Amino acid sequence: MEALDYHAKERRKAEFDVQEMKIVWAGSRQAYEISDRVARLVASDPVSDFVKVFRKDNRTMLSRKELFTDTLKKVAHAWKRINELRLSEEEGTKLMDFMDQPSFADLQWGMFIPAIKGNGTEEQKAKWLPMAYKVQILGCYAQTELGHGSNVRGLETTATFDPQTDEFVLHSPTLTSSKWWPGGMGKVSTHAVVYARLITDGQDHGVHGFIVQLRSLDDLSPLPGITVGDIGMKFGSGAYNSMDNGVMRFDHVRIPRDQMLMGISQVTREGKDVQSDVPRQLIYGPMVFVRQKIVADASTALSRAVCIATRYSAVRRQFGSQNGGPETQVIDYKTQQSRLFPLLASAYAFRFVGQWLMWLYRDVIQRLQTNDFSTLPEVHACTAGLKSITTSATADGIEECRKLCGGHGYLSSSGLPELFAVYVPACTYEGDNVVMLLQVGRFLMKTVSQLGSGKMPVGTIAYMGRAEHLLQCRCEVERAEDWLKPHVILEAFEARAARMAVACAKNINKFPKQEDGMHFSLDILLLHGPSRKTLSMLQGKDCAAAASLLKLLTSVCVSLCLSSGFAELSADLTEAAVAHCQLIAVSKFIEKLQQDIPGKGVKRQLEILCNVYALSLMHKHIGDFVATGCISPEQGALANEQLRLLYSQVRPNAIALVDAFNHTDHYLGSILGRYDGNVYPKLYEEAWKDPLNETVAPDGLHEYIQPILKQHIRLARL
User: Fold this and answer.
1) How far is C-alpha 198 from the chain's CA centre?
2) For residue 252, is it left (φ>0), alpha (ψ between -120 and 50) or beta?
3) CA 314 to CA 10: how far, in whole Å?
4) DSSP sequence for 632-675
5) Angle at 396 between CA 395 and CA 402, to 5 degrees
6) How many CB atoms lie within 10 A of CB 139?
7) What Å distances lie between residue 602 and 32, 306, 586, CA to CA?
């Protein structure tokens, strides 16, 4: 019997080539083919010992020990399949991704190996990487401590060089120096890259990395002087509890000197700390790669949630029945569209900015190889900010999708609670999101302080080179359809970002200057005199913005240290940073549309989504745009009017647009998001699988329920 497709009617409405959109989403035809093949391999993996190893439906019902054992089994089976099928590194990585269960293997490939590749000498790489690649050792990344996370400089673990034995002595001097959170460290990792304070001859040289063996390769028992274990249950039922996040303390543990990662700095046999010939800036390469991966993962996680919510919104009907006919599909309500479609557009936006970040990574690597470090400050700020806004928006978006699914979204079988619990740590790891925004804020303040100095901003901050114009320009929108012009949207976002950054700089300048801070004072008029362009601006009818810029340039003094102004205005700085980073995301979506995009109707749908993304951000942050004078309240109302019209254009293509994500039912792990839309029978069927339904009466009937009932009877007779 042929299976029913409850979304068939919706799919026939599509106005574009879904197959071509899948390729655009994947990034290339080759990437699509690899991803599609491996996803289906995992979804249809043959039964082994009468158990489907990659099954996910029972995960939330397992105890912590059962879940962890299940994870070990999955990883072992995945590596077995990778070897049997002779998969490439790219295919193997995809297989582990589609296994969709956090494990120690994520740290082996995602942190341990890159740390050695990025910070080790050629000799160290030759020794340790082959063992790691062949899984002869299992590694983790031990940086975070009980007392310090974001503030890496505050780490307390010490590595003291002993010249008598040519060894480092690792020690945890305080309770708060205990390593805390490293994935894989709790029960499995045999080795770790441990970050500790390098001390030679009584002098503290700051934090460095060391390769340390933690456990016996025979039975995984901790080596002498090492106390290590798991930190306990985390948020959610299944979720990230499949990962053995660890706690570890060192009691004067000795390691050979050559196990310090010495690619950037070295300690000689005599105990001298010597900088190598390799530029320290090379560490930026791995950093950009990791942040690019985080942004790409954000698009994937958000796309899963949006796929579930969109498909279920098309299945679910509530109210609106006419003359006994069917009720209205929930997806047809404007309130549902206004919450759901911006998230759909965001998933595509994050995908394209992630693809651009991969290009940026390659560009950074090429520049580093020629000792060109000119773009690094901008790259650091850009990647930090994009990590922050994409992960925050994705975590919030997953929760919004759960609410969009009503009560059924709260079921584990919807896939959304576990997806949220697994994803939300991304807002903290690899840099707390607020801390990341503050770093962007510092970069913006430094950029503002250098305006007019002759040093032109580059890359994603290049628009600040036109600050004079952006501070006095007026939006040209007169009709709702004017908001469909890319240059109009782009200038509005640029003006908002520039004005918020300049306003922060001016306000910081009002605070007392710190004598011990590093200040950048720009008396541009005294040094260079006003430009002709500036003078002509001042001669215009509305010169307030230009005058403000000149006043700023003649007096601004921005502290890049922890000044009182920076601390007091930190909330404003994070908002300016968000404006800057949202501009990047919008601009990269617009740039994507300037490329040749094949496929019937594909480019048109992406143009609609780009406009939805930009105008929904404007709607959400309308206060910024109006308060800074970028647009008028009337123009803001026109933007909202156009946004409503765009939702109507997304509606007939909504199911096809989430189909283009190409997620298998196995990967989604959601009854509500099933490809065929057969939701209600499957929900009913799934309910009876719960262990509580294995018996008619609950355990504890005779011990607890009956005594209560009998007591109530006696009370009733009174």
Assistant:
1) 31
2) left
3) 8
4) -HHHHHHHHHHHHHHHHHHGGGHHHHHHTT---HHHHT-STT-T
5) 95
6) 30
7) 16, 19, 18
Contact at 8 Å (CB) between 57 and 70? no
Residues 613-627 have a mean pLDDT of 97
pLDDT at 533: 38
Residue 243 has, within 13 A of its CA and on its CB side, a CA count of 26
- Residue 295 contacts residue 357 (beta carbons within 8 Å): yes
Alpha-carbon span 315 to 681, nearest angstrom = 12
Q: Strand 191-200 vs strand 139-142: parallel, antiparallel, or unpaired? A: parallel
Element (H, E) at 246: strand 246-250
CA distance 459 to 196: 35
How many helices (H) and strands (E) would you count in the chain? 27, 13
| Residues shown for the chain | 718
Host H or E run for residue 342: helix 334-369
Q: Do residues 422 and 669 lie in contact, with contact meaning Cβ atoms separated by under 8 Å?
A: no
8 A C-beta contact, residue 601 and residue 16: yes
The three-point CA angle 510-538-460 to 5° equals 65
163 burial via Cβ count (<10 Å: 0-12, 13-18, 19+): middle
Cα dist from 474 to 268, 488, 537, 550, whole Å: 62, 10, 13, 19
Nearest CA-CA partner of 347 in 297, 415, 291, 408: 297
274: tokens are 């010597």
Q: Give, in order, the Cα–Cα distances in Å from 626 to each of 231, 475, 486.
A: 48, 11, 19
Count other C-beta atoms under 10 Å from residue 318's C-beta: 12
3-state class (DSSP) for residue 488: helix
Which residues, other chains included, contact 15 with Cβ-Cβ below 8 Å and sequence gap of 6+?
601, 604, 605, 652, 653
| 8 Å CB contact between 102 and 183 | yes
**Are the C-beta atoms of 212 and 253 separated by less than 8 Å?**
yes
Average pLDDT over residues 57-69: 92
228 token code pair: 């290590």
Torsions phi, psi for 477 (to 5 deg): -65, 130
Phi-psi region of 520 (alpha: psi -120 to 50; beta: other; left: phi over 0): beta
Say how far apart CA 606 and CA 425 lie, in whole Å. Answer: 30
323: left (phi over 0), alpha (psi -120 to 50) or beta: left
For residue 488, give the nearest of 641, 635, 633 by alpha carbon.
635
- DSSP letters along 271-313, please? --EEE-SS-GGGGHHHHHHHHHHHHHHHHHHHHHHHHHHHHHH
Q: Which of 356, 575, 628, 586 is nearest to 483 (CA)?
A: 586
Mean pLDDT (the chain, rounded): 89
As a dihedral over the C-alpha atoms of residue 400, residue 355, residue 349, residue 662, rounded to 10 degrees, the angle is -60
CA distance 482 to 407: 40
Quote the pLDDT of residue 3.
64
| Distance of alpha carbon 501 from alpha carbon 450, whole angstroms | 13
Q: SS in 3 state form for 609-640? A: HHHHHHHHHHHHCHHHHHHCCCCCHHHHHHHH
- The residues, ordered by sequence, that sit 6+ positions from 515 with a Cβ below 8 Å of its Cβ are none
Q: Which residues lie closer than 8 Å to 424 by C-beta, 6 or more apart?
A: 235, 395, 398
Residue 641: pLDDT above 90?
A: yes
Catalytic residues: 430
> pLDDT confidence of 343, banded at 50, 70, 90?
very high
User: Which residue from 406, 412, 396 is spatially nearest to 336, judged by alpha carbons?
Assistant: 406
Q: Determine contact, residues 436/387, Cβ cutoff 8 Å.
A: yes
Distance (Å) of CA 209 to CA 157, 173, 400, 469 = 11, 18, 40, 47
Residue 521 has pLDDT above 70, yes or no: no
Residues 620, 575, 283: CA angle, nearest 5 degrees: 120
